[in-house]
Design goal:
By secondary structure, the protein is of the alpha/beta class. The chain has 2 domains: 2-167 and 345-361, Glycogen Phosphorylase B (Rossmann fold), CATH 3.40.50; 171-343, Glycogen Phosphorylase B (Rossmann fold). It has 12 helices and 12 strands. It has helices at residues 19-33, 53-77, 97-104, 124-137, 146-155, 196-208, 227-233, 253-257, 274-281, 312-324, 326-343, 346-361; strands at residues 2-6, 37-42, 82-86, 108-111, 140-143, 161-163, 185-189, 217-221, 242-246, 262-264, 286-289, 304-307. Helix 1 (19-33) packs across helix 12 (346-361) and helix 6 (196-208) crosses helix 10 (312-324). The protein starts with a strand and ends with a helix.
């Protein structure tokens, strides 16, 4: 099938790295591996940081221009066989795909669409209504977590839903050789920005204050506008305990993870977190909270330890447990690597996507 791909939050070729950009790219690769031809139909970003009727009106006008452009293009060269929208939600609704799909009678598909009942009033309601209408129209809404599916189903019980677990390209991890540094090395990979990310950094800092009696070091991979606040949060630690790796190219992550022992990231508000999968692919167990979408990517008690939300002491205790039990560390690391390679790889996702399209999209008249 010829698929028109659109990611209204951030296009796949956007210059700023993020989990959203990475997932968009992975979806395109998975669709191609499943035998489809994928074209980025539009790079229009419909993201709004704050609720604003004026901003939404501006976005509608921009979307109208994109619709006119694509309509002319499709009338001349032929329409695609389906429209695929990645991650429409109240801050970045798809204002293009549903209208063009209806006009050209092609299936509309969403992936990682989400619905929040708290946003069904005020200025956000306009965008939220667009998301709901798109999910209702969709031939299938592909959900990455049970949490997202339940949110959509509660608002749109007559919608069509399928599950696709979050996944990564495991190729960079296939021939990875672990490197022991002598000290017990913790590692976190995250953008440094206000909000949930900063909350996680602060929680990790508080947890590590319970563990200063143990010998360990922490590598932090990432950068961003909150870098000064992150540095302040860990100012209680001597310099020799911290390795600020900064922002890195995606291809370098596997090698950096190979030099660590344990992946630690509280995961406040994480949709799921592809970094958890990358760490496990490198053979690292995970310590995080049992919150938001984290349980969708970490098997509690098998590939890591998930602690109750907000409990700093138990988060610290989980880190201590891995530090004190080399057998547990090794066994969880082996299970983590096997889990990602067998269940969360790009080929596995492509096979699942192919099945979803065969059932929900190809079968449509």
């Amino acid at each position: 099938m010829k698929i028109a791909f659109h990611a209204p939050l951030k296009p796949p070729d956007h210059p700023v790295p993020s989990g959203d950009r990475q997932m968009a790219r992975m979806l395109i690769e998975a669709l191609q591996l499943a035998g489809h031809e994928v074209d980025i139909a539009s790079r229009l970003r419909s993201f709004s940081r704050e609720a604003s009727h004026a901003d939404f009106s501006t976005l509608r006008l921009q979307a109208d221009q994109e619709i006119a452009r694509l309509r002319a293009l499709w009338r001349q060269g032929g329409a695609p066989d389906a429209w695929f929208c990645y991650h429409p939600y109240y801050k970045s609704p798809d204002l293009i795909g549903p209208r063009l799909s209806a006009e050209f009678s092609i299936p509309y598909v969403t992936a990682e669409s989400s619905y929040s009942s708290r946003r069904s009033h005020g200025a956000w309601k306009l965008a939220q209504d667009e998301v709901a209408a798109g999910a209702r129209q969709a031939a299938v809404n592909i959900c990455f977590t049970q949490r997202d599916r339940e949110g959509l189903e509660s608002a749109i019980p007559d919608g069509r839903y399928a599950m696709l677990s979050p996944f990564i390209d495991v190729a960079p991890f296939e021939k990875l050789e672990r490197r022991k540094s002598g000290s017990f090395r913790l590692i976190s990979v995250a953008m440094m920005r206000p909000g949930d990310k900063m909350d996680s950094f602060r929680m990790l800092s508080r947890a590590l204050q319970h563990l200063v009696d143990l010998p360990w070091t922490l590598t932090v991979v990432g950068d961003g506008p909150a870098s000064a606040e992150v540095s302040d949060a860990f100012s209680f630690l001597p310099a020799e305990r911290l390795d600020w790796a900064g922002a890195t190219q995606p291809g370098a992550i596997a090698g950096i993870l190979a030099g660590a022992d344990l992946y630690v990231w509280p995961g406040c508000g994480e949709a799921y977190g592809l970094s958890y999968l990358e760490a496990q692919a490198a053979g690292l167990p995970v310590v995080a909270q049992r919150t938001a979408g984290v349980p969708a990517v970490v098997k509690d008690g098998e590939t890591g330890i998930l602690t109750p939300p907000g409990d700093v002491a138990l988060l610290a205790a989980a880190i201590r447990r891995f530090r004190d039990d080399e057998t547990l560390l090794a066994e969880c690391g082996e299970r983590a690597r096997r889990f990602v390679f067998e269940e969360r790889s790009l080929p596995a996702a492509a096979q699942r996507l192919g099945g979803i399209f065969d059932h929900y999209v190809r079968s449509k008249p």
